[in-house]
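Consider the tokenized backbone below.
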């Protein structure tokens, strides 16, 4: 961690969904660190089904804004990251690449042989592929959001977009699902109010449903 990076507890406490950005560009080394943080996320069988489209070009941001209910911050953000999941990555080389890297890191041949059977079985029959993709993509997305905040940027997660239009703007293949948009930049004007969070006793249960957790 560089001495200027914010600690995670502070980020979690103080992060707000940024209402407006000033558009100043992000240095490539910071962008690389943010993207890499996402790619370090965990995933089932290490299948890493996430895909990200990085949008910085002003014209492309304008088009993306048109696909996002005209939300101004899509155009104002220094970088927009469009987080997608690829339903067919595992069919198109990801499985082999995962096994190759795994072997390099010490995966046993018996695990690799089993994974080669189990994973295609599991994914070709998955009852809810969009949910499977969403589950993984949002972890990587959150890694990126928190890393951007750690580096001193402000962030805006967004689900306000029309998938059909986003697909068209970004020329996405059919196997891609658009999961969420992440705006990164520097806050312009006042920050959003803190909306607060439900008490733990409302949302966390102790051992079984119905027993509110109190710590
Ligand atoms: C997945 C997700 C999608 C969101 N979509 C939008 C959006 O499209 N537009 C917007 O203005 N805010 C959006 N938000 C921001 C939320 O409104 C905000 O996180 C929430 O009000 C809590 O505020 P806070 O993040 O500042 O604590 C989204 C947040 C998340 C996590």
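A designed sequence for it:
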């Amino acid at each position: 961690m560089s001495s200027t990076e914010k600690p995670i507890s502070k980020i979690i406490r103080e992060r707000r969904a940024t209402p407006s950005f000033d558009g100043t560009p992000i240095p490539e080394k910071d962008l690389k660190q943010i993207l890499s943080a996402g790619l370090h996320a965990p995933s089932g069988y290490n299948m890493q089904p996430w895909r990200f489209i990085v949008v910085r070009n002003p014209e492309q941001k304008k088009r993306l804004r048109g696909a996002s209910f005209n939300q101004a911050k899509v155009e104002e953000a220094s970088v927009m990251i469009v987080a997608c999941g690829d339903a067919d990555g595992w069919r198109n080389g990801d499985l082999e690449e995962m096994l190759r890297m795994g072997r390099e890191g010490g995966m046993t041949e018996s695990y690799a042989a089993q994974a080669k059977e189990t994973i295609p079985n599991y994914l070709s029959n998955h009852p809810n592929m969009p949910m499977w993709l969403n589950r993984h993509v949002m972890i990587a997305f959150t890694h990126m959001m928190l890393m951007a905040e750690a580096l001193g940027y402000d962030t805006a997660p967004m689900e306000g977009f029309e998938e059909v239009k986003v697909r068209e703007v970004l020329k996405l293949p059919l196997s891609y699902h658009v999961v969420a948009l992440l705006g990164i930049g520097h806050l312009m004007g006042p920050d959003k109010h803190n909306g607060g969070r439900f008490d733990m006793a409302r949302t966390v249960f102790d051992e079984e449903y119905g027993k509110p957790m109190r710590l």
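The mean pLDDT is 97.
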